[in-house]
């Protein structure tokens, strides 16, 4: 026996045989469902054809070879579902009739069926007054969610209310897309008075393919076009392209002002060289602008460096032009006073080269193992991590030595000063790598301060000045060392203990009352001291 209704796909109840009452309800509902064009309609058609449910069905016996799931029977005989399906059918019939009404059009114009709001696809929006559009996004007609970049929390995107009659480029985009579902809401309406709303993200996606609308009231994007055209033909094409000359931007700006005054009769003495540079870059992208001591050198991109340097000395003087053509007016200053001097430029390039050397050294040198032990925090390890170039620069800068070496090795410095120079080098490398590179000085100094004073605040002060690691990193280091010792087992013998030699064992209870941020996590340990017996003296290990 099988279910002859089966409209509930997840029905799990046992199949029940029809009684006279249930069979009568099933037949009556089937006669109602058969003309409603739904999933239940196919079940009704099949049942009517199989069991010959005509007007004389009451005289027939109830079939015994079929039954029903309880869930399927409840869905199929639900009177509310049948009523809603009837209403949907009546509404669809009215919409179809309204769409087929003839319109007054020319004989040559083909008839066009106008899409109604009630027949549009997508979820419906809450209704308001007749002259107002529904509250919701006109484009997506649903809620959009955005994620905060910092907290990573999701929240509903707020709706933006339209402030122009055509919603900016929304009407134009809808017309190009031929989106009738949107045009029926916004075509021929005052969107400001209708209080149209949309999500900004939906608006950007919907109008992305359209070009930018020029702002009203802006000056002409290409002013002095006649003078600029003559300037390009007589100067750019003749001298820069054909004669392969290298010209100063300030001199070109002065010549452009002169040409505009001759051709258009307009005095543009306030025209900045930076504006001319931007215009030349847009119209002649093959031009290159090299920043010299006080100005830009303009030349074509296929000139070599030797040709540019050779031609720089033969450039026209810009002293005849106003002071507005100087470097300070061509571009905003980012370095400060004295940036164009020879010494500053030399120091700048030296600093950039030194920074590149430090980054290369950090990328090519293996990092310290974790956790770093006493053997990894020796002076030799720190000296190997420091680039020789950085060491020599600091030695010369601080006056520790004046020796100039060409073999790439470190300069000769006394042992006391060598310790200070290597310390400074590690601070510079740690600052350059933004603390991502663990240096021996920072790890060992932080651990020494923790064991000596136990002050978390002192470690924080030194870390803020860039002298050692942070307190949290010291705690991680200490924990990692303890875990490493546990991994070695109970029978581990330190490397400085000699086997089969008489020794004296001393035990003591050491409680460190170190200062922590929370007042908890202080150290309580029992230490063991081994002393080897010698004929003269005993040396602790």
Radius of gyration from the alpha-carbon trace, in angstroms: 43 Å
- What is the typical, i.e. mean, pLDDT? 76
Q: Biggest β-sheet: count, sense, barrel?
A: 3 strands, mixed
Any idea what the shape is? flat
Element layout with pairings:
Elements: E1 2-3, E2 16-17, H1 20-33, H2 39-51, E3 66-68, H3 70-76, H4 79-99, E4 145-147, E5 154-156, E6 160-161, H5 170-177, H6 180-186, E7 197-198, H7 200-206, H8 225-242, E8 247-248, H9 249-264, H10 273-283, E9 287-291, E10 296-300, H11 305-312, H12 327-330, H13 342-364, H14 379-385, H15 388-397, H16 415-432, H17 440-452, H18 456-464, H19 471-488, E11 503-512, E12 523-532, E13 539-540
Parallel strand pairs: 1-3
Antiparallel strand pairs: 2-3, 4-5, 6-7, 8-10, 9-10, 11-12, 12-13
Helix pairs in contact: 1-2, 8-9, 15-16, 17-18, 17-19
Compact summary:
Helices cover 43% and strands 9% of the residues. It is mainly alpha-helical and 541 residues long.
Structure write-up:
It contains 19 helices and 13 strands. The C terminus is likely disordered. The strands form 5 sheets. It has a 3-stranded mixed β-sheet. The protein has a 3-stranded antiparallel β-sheet with strand order 8-10-9. The protein has 541 residues and is mainly alpha-helical. It folds into 5 domains: 87 residues, no CATH class; 85 residues, no CATH class; 101 residues; 135 residues, no CATH class; 38 residues, no CATH class.
Give me some keywords for this one.
single chain, 541 residues, mainly alpha, 5 domains, three-stranded mixed β-sheet, three-stranded antiparallel β-sheet, 19 helices, 13 strands, 43% helix, flat, disordered C terminus
